[in-house]
Fold:
Amino acid sequence: MKLGVFLFATDYAMPLDELAPEIESRGFESLFVPEHTHIPASRTSPYPGGGELPKEYSHTVDPFVGLAAAAATTTTLRLGTGICLIIERDPIVLAKEVASLDLISHGRFELGLGGGWNREEMENHGADYETRFRLLEEQAKAMQQIWTEDEAEYHGEFVDFDPIWSWPKPTQKPHPPILLGGETTYTLRRVVDFCDGWLPRGRDPQRVLEGLAELGEIAREAGRDPATISTSVFAAPPEPDALARFEAAGAERALLWLPADGREDLLPRLDRYAKLLA
Amino acid sequence: MDIGLSIFATDYAIRIDELAREAEARGFESLWVPEHTHIPTSRATPFPGGTDLPKQYWHTHDPFVSLMAAAAATERLKVGTGICLLIERDTITLAKEVASLDFLSNGRFLFGIGGGWNREEMENHGTDHPSRFRRLEEQVAALKTIWTEEEPEYHGEHVDFDPIWSWPKPAQDPHPPVFLGGGTRYTRQRVVDFCEGWLPIGFAAEPVLKGLADLEARAAEAGRDRSTINVSVFGVRGGPEDVKRFADAGIDRSILSLPSASRDEVLPLLDTYAALVGA
Structure:
């Protein structure tokens, strides 16, 4: 199984361009970063993790700029969003950001995406909480058109544009893998319907193991080969037994949490995690 | 006077990180890229350049991704948008993209903006052509608030949000300079009112020099010190003679255009332009 890491890339953590080569040189496969475009100060939507919202949520660098910096100082490390809140972004702009990052990184980008939980945050971008997954599906399908068609157009309820030209096309063909975050059966159905992978959180390992079996059933029912769908466990426990169980159940990748800390804390932690690569 | 370069960073041109290294090695001060998020195939709005729209307009990379690649490959070179169509972008997301690029480049970003001309392109982002400059002005004010305040908020006609938290803040204090593109007197008044720089197109010297006199008069009228406004001429075509005229007139920066072409075509041109550096 591939082993990667993720962290909230912030202004007080080790900079991504310095951290990325340390990750690559230790043999990790990938680096993922989450995003929040901002956090509304009202803090009306409760934090799903419970308690106060951690500081790093309001200090993340833009993921596309941050991963471009990480791409510049590495050569093989896969670079991903985990997750990108695409419903807060314009699909035409986002399609070009993804394609540009895939091109300058020589085809190393993975687009993890999700629906989000912070109602006020998405409302500041004109997205409605109740319809966010219908928006997400249309955006993903519209971007797939832009990435693969010479004259792309899309006509949906939320995303609607007449034919456009947009290059560069992504280096990866037909486009970078789209990985959907979330753990519900609805998520699994969406993965089978329009994504390339599943990106569940590993905080409930049992649900991930059940979900892997369920994902296979849903795929077969839909006539899709389950082997065409990858699973990456986000925030997997850094323990050999837990990782072995995910691997035995069919997961391709596990992502280990790095705190948004400085070099002196991150490098020893990377060294500890690297023992799991053996 | 500073000497910069501009190029449409495309999938068929020299890679932007490679070009940035070559530019820095030759002593150029800055590298600028334009943006179009896409081009609607209807081509209903005529190209202001008069000809058919050149292919590079629909092959441009995202400017923030490509300028981060350029900054990561260099140490001193400044990187700029010339221009960013901010009216096609979400203000809160853009504030973070700019701040992230400025933070990760150690304060080397120059933020050129403009109102754009392609009506169908902006409409695909929900922007209305007649009101685009009112929107632009609100966006600049909101961006500056996000970059400088702990709990920014903004309440305008086109941009409206309650207090938010948004870090990183830009590395430059108080924020990267905002340069407004355009050649009209309205543009110059907006520069005096809410920007740090003017970014006129310099295909010919005379209109720029006339505009500079107008800009200086408007600054004096508004009680703003001219030295607080950086004048950077974009797309200088007249060669050493125009660069000298601009320098003599007190213009701060000349930006020379490179074709969106391969390394073999671009690097000899860089060598030619390099004669102007420090001249």
In short: Chain A touches chain B through 49 residues (CB under 8 Å).
